[in-house]
Amino acid sequence: MAPRRVRVLPLVLALAGLAAAGTAAAFRLRAQRDVTTSSEQAYKAYRAGVENDLKMYEREAMSSYAEALRYDPHFVMATLRLADKMRGRDPERAASLLASAARYRDDLTEREKLHLKIWEERWGKRDPKVLESLYDAYVGSFPKDPEGYQMRAAFLANNGRMPEAIAEYERLIAVNPNYAVAYNTLGYYWSKNGDSAKGEDYLKRYRFLAPNDANPYDSLGELYAFTGRYDEAEENLRKALSIKEDFYAAWGHLGTVEASRGNPLKAAEYFRKASDNAPNTFTRYDFRFLVAMCLVDAGRGDDAMKDQDSASAEIASMAPGPESQKLKAIDGIRRAGLLGRIGRTAEAEAALAAVDPKALADPKEPKSQEMVDLQLNLIRGVIAMGAGRDAEAVALLKNSLEQKQDKGFASSDYYPANTFTRLALATSLGRLGRTDEAAQALAPILEKNPRFFPALQSLARAQGQEPPAPIAPATRAENAS
Amino acid sequence: MSSLSPALSSASGAVDAPHLPSRHLPLVAVGLMGALLAVLSVVDMFLPKAYDGVVPDPYSVGGIFVRDLVPGGAAERAGLKSGDVILGIGHRMLNKAADAPPELLRHKVGEKVDYLVRRGGDVFEAKVSLTPYRLGSATYYYFVFLGLLFFMLGVFVVTRRPDDSAVQVFYVLCILFMEFFVCRLRPSSYYWIDYVVQIAGTLALFLLPAVFLHFFLLFPEKKTFGFADRRAGDPSAPPFLAALQRFLNGSPLLLAVLYSLPPVLYVLQMAGYRHGGPRRLIFGAPTLNWILLADYLILGLLALAHTWWTNSDRAARRPILVLLLGTVAGIVPFVVFAVFFPSLFREDRFLLWGVVPMALIPLTFAYAIVRFRLFDVQVIVRKSLVYAVLTAVVTGMYALAVVAGNALVSTVSSTTVFSSPAFAFGFGLVVVLLFDPLRRRMQKVVDRVFFRDRADFQTALLEMSRSVVSQLERPKLRELLTARTADLLRLERLELLLPRPEDGAFTEPSASAAGVQPLPMSAVLLQRLLERGAPARLADADDGGLDLASRRFVEAQRARGIGVVLPLATHGKLLGLLAVGKKRSEEELSREDLDHLLTIANQGALGLEAAGLHEELTRRAEVERDLDIARDIQTSLFPRQLPNIPGIEFFGVSRPARVVGGDFYDFLDVDSRPDGRLALVLGDVSGKSIPASLLMVAAKEIVNARAMADPDPSAVFQASNRRLYEIKRRMFVSLSYFLLDPKALAMNYAFAGQPTPLLVRPGSGTATEIPSPSSRLPLGAFRDTVYDAVSLYLSRGDLLLFYTDGLNEAMSAEMTPYGDERLKASLVRHSRRPLADLADELLEDVRQYTHGAEQYDDITFVLMRVT
Hints:
The structure holds two protein chains of two kinds. By secondary structure, chain A is mainly alpha-helical.
């Protein structure tokens, strides 16, 4: 019997070792979980929330985190993420959630502790240096966790360090290619920075990743709208609206499409829809101004002014404060510009004179006052153009462009930057017979979007040609092809 | 009824059935586990799964580069093209090809899945309708076939020789090869089975090279290195060489290092990767592990090549060479195409080129088992089966030739002659005519390859039987019956037990000194063996009816590994026993083996009998030859010429009873001058033949020497007596010595046990005995005997007869002696005849008296006449 026992013993030992190793591995894997929770259901709900977060499905993500907390009320990471989602909607509740999460600080993993610190700093002192060091520490400690790169990239973008932010987003998608926010940011960045093909590539990935979200369709629609691919833009935007009917941005970009096609009245209609669905006063006001601008383009100056008056009344009814004061100043400028465009020069100049430049300036910005002056000169140039004082208008508008006054009159996310300035300049130059200069002024617009109807129309007028017909949507068959 | 059942009856049926005792359970467990994993893998590969028909580039990153598309597959139908890059599937982005299968697993067959694709600078979405697909391809079929081949080979060998450590390692090697092919070289299914079998495949990858090398360190014999021994006398030999040799020669540490190196290397690479090092994988395993695998395989091949190179046994080298060639042909392409290409050039398109030839390894081993009884495993391939397969193959070749011929002709010509059915028929006819010669030729090849050993064995058996019968030399016969037969039947032990000369007990001569129990003639076991004349299994022998001696014998033989005993008997006489040990293959002795042994035993009995007869004849012939020589010598000792003395005539006769005799006579010229004295010596040595003749020679020489020194009869006798006494006791020499003085016609003489000579005086008409001395004891009887001499004066006409007792005591058929009186009468009757005639007459009278009866004693006499 002895020899047999000797043979069996190693087998038993090997099996026991295997079992022990398996158990240890299982514990190790469990310990490697990125979050602390006592409930499997809570963990699953939390993972679903994170997945939704990656796709930027805000509501679904909130719902998942809330569900996770129902299973495990002490689930710190779910609490923190829910607080983050709640911050824009209900800051007080968000603060309360953060405070509750902080109570479990001692029971957390290193990763969770770092998350907590970051959130506390972001909602507290918001010291950029401290935040940056926290993000660096996070990425250094957890190089495989894409969230570290995502947080650092967002921080860099928010602090105007876009090239660094873009590089960080690139790193993020190399670690995890399923971060929708990275594609969204990269798509926007490159489409706004001269590489629309790259931007389109990223945005298409974003759209593919989050097909049930309206935002990627809107983002792609916006890109197409600003590059003259109106049909594709319209298709994406309508898809976005089919997903989310009250998506103001999509309505707004549909307005952009129609304005670019040369259908100002239809554009005004879409901008009005956007305005109606806008989430806040500022946005609503912006769209109302675009409605007025389109009505002016359509030759319905009076209607435009009525709309603007209505918007101005809303602004005037705002509670006093620095922000309402600034908005009133902006309203003054815009009214002046609109009045100038329709030839009501005196009213325009009076409106401009009523604007308090100090209200427009940002005391924290050193060149703020200079920028405000440039804006005022731009409006003066528009008024001069409307009054037929073309030489004066050309001088003022050119100066504005040379000083790289990016914002420009009527520039917004829904209307190309400086577009209106260049259109006004080209009109005056055309009237002065300086055709080449007019074409030169319009060239940057057409370079970005060769099918931008207002520019094509302005150029034709400057060159004494018959203005082209507005750009019609492609037929169904063409779309299909 | 005796339960000593003949082995032939008990051997039938279960003789060849392999069985695995409980101590082999780990081997069974390994086999079952391996088979289970392989089956799981195969099932997983052939379960239909959702598939898009994309053939990806496994090394692309940042998306999946579409290397190719399955024609008519889902992706092709969806508009994808080769060169596209798949960025995402099912609304998840992908970085590499390995990300795709788990994504596909989330979808069902028939489901339309969104693909994000980049083609050139354009990114677009496509809807791919997934189709059912079995991952197992024709290539995987081949891998499964290869794995099965290894598995069957391993199981076949281990069930026959489960206790052989080399076979055990080979078995594990086969299992690992199967796991490697079936579980490792397979596309990932990302099903739960995949994780299990891939882990098994990876473990196989780690263990396989070590086991491969381990096997070739044990097979075909345990490898030992002697590089340090060769330099032992060299003082400059570094001590590390000796340490290295000790390490390589059976150190347990060697195997520990061998087996731990691959996993350690794996862990180190993984650790390096975790700390930011480059990650280079081939089929999911780190590159360095593949390179180590190649190194181990090459080392294993070198070990086998070294064994072949250093083996001096030509017969043993052949199977090793076959294995070496097969293994090299199988392994080298694998190392080149499956290891070096992917690791050095990141090129795995030629993997199949490396894996396909690996079939040569199991096939070569299988061939070596059938052809050379590798591992001492005997496989009987039925000729009819092989011929049937051969006929099928040739028929297939025939059909192929017909089809190929038609196809070939149709491509080069479209004329009606070639495309007509008549041509096809004619072509087929030609092929048919070639069919039989081809089959015959191939049949010869098959016979030579598969059945030559079997035929050789039968021939060897026949030759052995002939040799056994014709071999008359007992040592060579023993060699044939033991060592040669054991080699022929591949037995570990075979002994021939022969009866001891002293008591007839059967024992193995060389082993008897080692305390092996002999089997006495009276043992019951011997009686039973003799009665049955068949092999007996010792395990069944002791039924309680055996006597003590038989039981002890059985126990002792079984303890020595003897399982069966066969009698060597002829004409009812037991001449020997064959004690048969186990087969080298550890298989039971088959009925066929026992038949062969019984045949050889029967032939051996005849051989032993013939050898015994031959020995007897040889012995006799040798004696005859010795006697001839002795007779020649003895004859040469008698005087060649009779003395020529004026006035005295002599004639001597000696007729030995057995070719050579103990009688002699001689004349000595003692004074060494023509007219000097002459001594006549007549002797009779006790006993007959060789010893007697030898003593006779000695006695003659002694007497001669003494006589030449001092011819006085008494002095000669006294000196000669002492000398002969010293030479040989209890053998006596009767001698008479007559010193004749021719001048004086006087004779001085002495007797030592001899009859007294007879004297016939002229005109007396009677024969009288001459005067006798008082002391007549034979020489050599007593140490110090004193002999006296007597003198006799002769006169003209005297006739003297000096004789030995063989003359007067010649026996008749009735055993009555001839007698002195008859002799005297005969002498007187013929006394006037010349001496030669007289001698003849004397002998004739004796012959007539004895009447042809055998001569019992030498007859010697000398006649002397004074003229």
